[in-house]
């Protein structure tokens, strides 16, 4: 990591703490991309740990620690939404965001090819793998793909997820 990137990361961390401290949420620091113990299938969308709470579109928004079960569900849903269907993909390390506003869950991640990917998947992912994807979970409907960030990035997730969640996720940067 260059000195400039290290300094930028430090400034970002201090700004994030300041933003989160003003949200009246829990005392935890954000752990996007970390995994909690996998919940049971019936509790796969239960709140495992609130990281930050803020207001978004008139609803409480909570930044959550993502379980491996939810990561898998989001990955499968994204893969099924693509043509050709992508089955040999995985989230890029430290790019996964997960949270809830009201009774709707949101997730964001970048994906990479996993071992065993076909040539068709390689071609399909050659550009898409570099941009962030956004999905939404609603009870009764499951995970649905909302879209992806443009390349180059159009400025983070505020255009896709509720403002309160985008703030808690520090703009998905």
Question: What does this protein structure show overall?
Answer:
There is one protein chain. This protein has four helices and ten strands. With 173 residues, it is an alpha+beta fold. The chain has one domain (3-172). Strand 6 and strand 7 form a beta hairpin. The chain is globular and about 45 Å long. The chain starts with a helix and ends in a 5-residue tail after the last helix. The model is unreliable at 1-52 (pLDDT under 50).
**β-strand number:** 10
Strand content: 25-35%
Tally of DSSP helical segments: 4
Instruction: Give the topology string: H per helix, E per strand.
Output: HEEEEHEEEEHEEH
What percentage of residues falls in helices of 4 or more residues? 25-40%
The total domain count is 1
Major sheet details: 6 strands, antiparallel
- Net shape: globular
- Gyration radius, in Å: 16 Å
**If you average the pLDDT, what whole number results?**
73
Signal peptide: 1-21
Region (Disordered): 31-50
Organism: Mangrovactinospora gilvigrisea
Protein name: Lipoprotein
